[in-house]
Design goal:
Structural class: alpha+beta
Helix content: 25-40%
CATH topology: Jelly Rolls
Largest sheet: 6 strands, antiparallel
Bound molecules: fe (ii) ion
Strand content: 15-25%
Length: 345
């Protein structure tokens, strides 16, 4: 009986009626709540931020944009690349492999990349922070989110080939299931081609955003592959013409909403890949709940709250979900809502 009801509901959630109900009725109403109620302060800061005209990248109503030949992007990529030379990479990969033990880890597929941000010298960390605070980058995120963002992640990933391993974990198709909207900035620190794991993504914006999910996910998956879709299964729904990738010289970058866009990447065949990732998110994302610290910035402790005078910077580094929303467990409940209502392909 319950199985039958589940089947009927599941079928209904794949119907065109459900699709149009979400698109024309539910999402506009939900979007209003998300911007003006759940992110009230972020909306206020967004309007304040926009009082002065600021430069931004135009995503052209899409939720992604490739940036090529931007001098400031190239500058930071070259500075980082100079420091992370071959010797540095070899040493870090050796150290990582010596300490690798996936048994204790939540994600069972994290054997192919190292976050090297924390071992950078202070001046390079500061350069990355300044890049994250760059007005053009913040404005691009704010324009996409329609609320002022927080910085949810700063990672500098060194990916490397692992013998006899195929695409797995985040190298398979997925959306990052952490919230309603985000904007990630991925910046290539070394040149990327098919040998070192380009980031692949669907070109077209999905009008339903997080309220749309593919159903042919990996069965009985381990943590790290849940809700992910094999490359073969994905190709049965989306042909190659629908897919683009971030390739090319160091300094190329992509802005992409990883919550709403199907993406995969980072599988290195023969060469290493170095990629900076800065995630602009909002305080209701489940991803940021443990990454906003009280007195110093989670990703760079030299940044102390008491020393930050700029209200926008204070928000970017330290804005936590307010007490009321925390009490209502807003982030978890919103995730439940997205899962419950999504249109199924
Ligand atoms: Fe992802």
């Amino acid at each position: 009986m319950i199985k039958n009801i589940k089947q009927i509901l599941s079928k209904f959630k794949s119907s065109k009626i459900w699709y149009y109900f979400l698109l024309f009725f539910f999402i506009p109403v939900y979007n209003f709540f998300w911007e003006f109620i759940f992110n009230f302060q972020g909306k206020l800061y967004y309007y304040l931020w926009k009082l002065k005209k600021k430069d931004s990248f135009d995503l052209k109503k899409n939720d992604k944009l490739i940036v090529e030949n931007d001098p400031s992007f190239k500058k930071i990529a070259y500075d980082l690349k100079n420091h992370i030379n071959e010797d540095f990479q070899k040493k870090e990969i050796h150290r990582f492999n010596q300490n690798l033990n996936l048994r204790g880890k939540v994600n069972k597929f994290e054997d192919y990349r190292i976050d090297i941000f924390q071992i950078l010298p202070t001046n390079l960390k500061q350069q990355i922070i300044d890049f994250a605070l760059n007005e053009r980058n913040i404005s691009t995120a704010a324009n996409h989110l329609k609320v002022f963002p927080v910085i949810g992640k700063i990672y500098l990933f060194l990916n490397f080939p692992v013998e006899e391993k195929k695409e797995r974990g985040a190298m398979l198709w997925h959306k990052d299931d952490f919230g309603y909207k985000s904007l990630d900035l991925f910046l290539a620190i070394n040149d990327i081609d098919n040998q070192n794991g380009p980031l692949y993504f669907l070109k077209k914006k999905e009008p339903l955003g997080v309220f749309c999910k593919l159903t042919n996910v990996i069965k009985n998956a381990l943590p790290g592959e849940r809700n992910k879709i094999s490359i073969k299964n994905f190709s049965e729904i989306f042909s190659d013409e629908n897919i683009d990738a971030l390739r090319g010289p160091a300094g190329n970058a992509i802005f992409v909403d990883s919550f709403t866009t199907y993406h995969r990447g980072g599988y290195c065949f023969s060469k290493n890949r170095i990629m900076l990732r800065i995630c602009y998110q909002t305080p209701d994302s489940i991803d940021v709940q443990h990454k906003i610290s009280e007195n110093s910035f989670y990703f760079f402790e030299d940044i102390k709250k008491k020393n930050i005078k700029n209200i926008f910077h204070k928000y970017l580094f330290f804005k936590k979900l307010n007490f009321f929303w925390k009490l209502l467990r807003l982030p978890d409940n919103l995730m439940r809502l997205y899962r419950l209502l999504h249109y199924k392909i």
